[in-house]
Design brief:
Organism: Chitinophaga caeni
Order of helices and strands: EEEEEHEEEEHEHEHHHHHHHEEHHEHEH
Region (Disordered): 23-43
Number of strands: 15
CATH architecture of the largest domain: 3-Layer(aba) Sandwich
Largest sheet: 11 strands, mixed
CATH superfamily of the largest domain: Alpha/Beta hydrolase fold, catalytic domain
CATH class of the largest domain: Alpha Beta
Mean pLDDT: 93
Signal peptide: 1-20
Keywords: Carboxypeptidase, Glycoprotein, Hydrolase, Protease, Signal
GO molecular function: serine-type carboxypeptidase activity
Helix content: 25-40%
Shape: globular
Length: 506
């Protein structure tokens, strides 16, 4: 199975008049903005602002601009848009961490984590992540800008990034391996232009962005000779790690159970427990009983089959007869339709806390992804207003929240193994994985399975960590998880930077 989770990290932002207005940096050489729908391969607009993080006022410089992608002959073939935040009261950047941030899709701009997670501005939403009016954005008191500089990168055809050479084929960019290759080259350009070779460096990716940064960790070492200190995977895909048949079917259950717990669809003995107290029991049943039972198939006795189905139903909130009808292989689509069918609701894909209403209660999949109707209407105005009004990047070019990147070549995805190789050959490299318990697209238990299969001998486990949150694909939309997720990243960065004189060796 290949899981390419659409990275819709969302947020409802628009202007907030209470925010301090950015000021142009004195003496900067900003290019005068002009209207038009063409992209310059190189451009930059610099503004200065502040954000208060954990009670400390942090001054920063924001650069919104583009840098070129060249082909092997040195011809500019594309321009990538980026937004770069530097804490401006620190002069020596040799010890200052740099975080390079990507979202996913493939085909998604970097807007989601930029304006809802780690950046200095965050969407105005309610505490559970639902839109409120008037839409807007505000200071992000949880941003990691206090401990690291951050650059958010839009791959080709996302955001303002575009192919500039009409003779260059889309296949140069649109595929697992092509994407990794050209972005590694671009990162080299960015790091060199901004004099960040000495800095501790980190990659963060969400959803398909986890596939991207896992591959980049090794590609940057092998082709650019650039070594990183950490990789952060937010809601990871399967990273090319094979799982199908009984394994694929069984691994869904812990997510089913977490979601049923959220909707109070479980029996009292489970419902009265804390989520984190209940899930280990479900995980043990999944690996020790359910997986072998599905693998045995028709060789199970009637008594054995009934016992497993009853326990599956107990942990999932589904009816035993439904589980039996599908031979214990319950697809996520069926689960989203079935769990609350009797109440007339469907549940969301990327965040299963969200409810939907279908035309008919019958069927085996929802009519739509319930969470998207809550999210998408506010994202586009937000980023356009933020870039124009606060970052002063003026253009008539359309900012592609999702761009055309198809056909996408999915062959050769060994990115989980790539990341393992990068960690094995770089003793400095650490890994943090963040998952939302209610994410049905890139679920938390499959993220754990990734780690087990990447490092079956356990030789890297001291540099691998996993964190779970009571939210969905974009766990940071829930206020407590926005704070905790950023704090987990902050601590990860500080712990992954080696002490002075600490050698990279085993």
């Amino acid at each position: 199975m290949k899981k390419y989770c659409l990275s819709l990290a969302l947020f409802c932002l628009v202007s907030m008049p209470m925010l301090a207005q950015p000021k142009a940096k004195p003496g900067n050489d900003n290019k005068e903005n002009t209207h038009g729908r063409t992209l310059d391969a190189e451009s930059s607009v610099v503004t200065e602002n502040t954000v208060t993080i954990k009670g400390q006022k942090i001054p920063y410089k924001a650069t919104a601009g583009t840098l070129p992608v060249w082909n092997d002959e040195g011809k500019v073939i594309a321009g990538l848009f980026y937004t770069y935040y530097e804490r401006s009261d620190i002069k020596d950047r040799s010890n200052r961490p740099l975080v390079i941030s990507f979202n996913g899709g493939p085909g998604s701009a970097s807007v989601w984590m930029h304006l809802a997670y780690t950046g200095p501005r965050v969407l105005r939403i309610d505490d559970e992540g639902y839109p409120i009016m008037p839409y807007g954005y505000e200071e992000n008191p949880n941003s990691i800008l206090d401990v690291a500089d951050i650059v958010y990168v839009d791959p080709v055809n996302t955001g303002y990034s575009r192919i500039l050479d009409k003779d260059t084929k889309g296949s140069t960019f649109f595929g697992v391996q092509a994407d990794i290759r050209y972005l590694a080259e671009w990162i080299n350009t960015f790091v060199t232009r901004n004099d960040r070779w000495a800095s501790p460096k980190f990659l963060i990716g969400e959803s398909y962005g986890t596939t991207r940064v896992s591959g980049l960790a090794l590609e940057l070492q092998n082709s650019q000779w650039m070594y990183f200190n950490g990789v952060i995977l937010v809601s990871p895909t399967d990273l090319g790690i094979e799982r199908s048949g009984p394994v694929e079917a069984a691994l869904r259950l812990p997510y089913f159970s977490a979601t049923a717990w959220y909707h109070k669809a479980l029996a009292n003995d489970l419902q009265q427990k804390q989520l984190e107290q209940m899930l280990p029991e479900v995980e043990q049943f999944t690996m020790n009983q359910l997986l072998p039972a599905i693998a045995k198939g028709s060789s199970l006795t009637a008594t054995e089959k009934t016992a497993i189905i009853q326990k599956f139903a107990h942990f999932s909130g589904l009816k035993p007869e439904v589980i039996e009808q599908y031979n214990m292989d319950i697809s996520t689509n069926l689960f989203w339709k079935e769990l609350l069918r009797d109440k007339g609701y469907t549940i969301g894909r990327l965040d299963s806390r969200y409810l939907g209403i279908d035309k008919q209660d019958g069927g085996v999949r929802p009519d739509y992804n319930a969470e998207l109707t809550s999210w998408l209407h506010s994202f586009t105005p937000a980023i356009n207003m933020y870039l124009r009004n606060e970052l002063k990047y003026i253009t008539d070019l359309k900012y592609n929240m999702f761009g055309s990147v198809y056909p996408w070549d999915r062959s050769g995805d060994r990115t989980g193994e790539n990341l393992r190789q990068a960690m094995s050959s770089n003793p400095y490299l650490h890994l943090l994985v963040q998952s939302g318990y209610f994410d049905g697209a890139c679920d938390y238990f499959n993220a754990k399975y990734n780690l087990w299969q990447m490092d079956p001998a356990g030789k890297l486990k001291d540099r691998m960590s996993w964190k779970g949150y009571r939210s969905g694909h974009m766990m940071y939309l829930r206020k407590p998880d926005l704070a905790q997720g950023n704090q987990d990243i902050r601590e990860f960065i500080l712990n992954a930077v080696p002490k002075a004189g600490q050698a990279a060796k085993y």
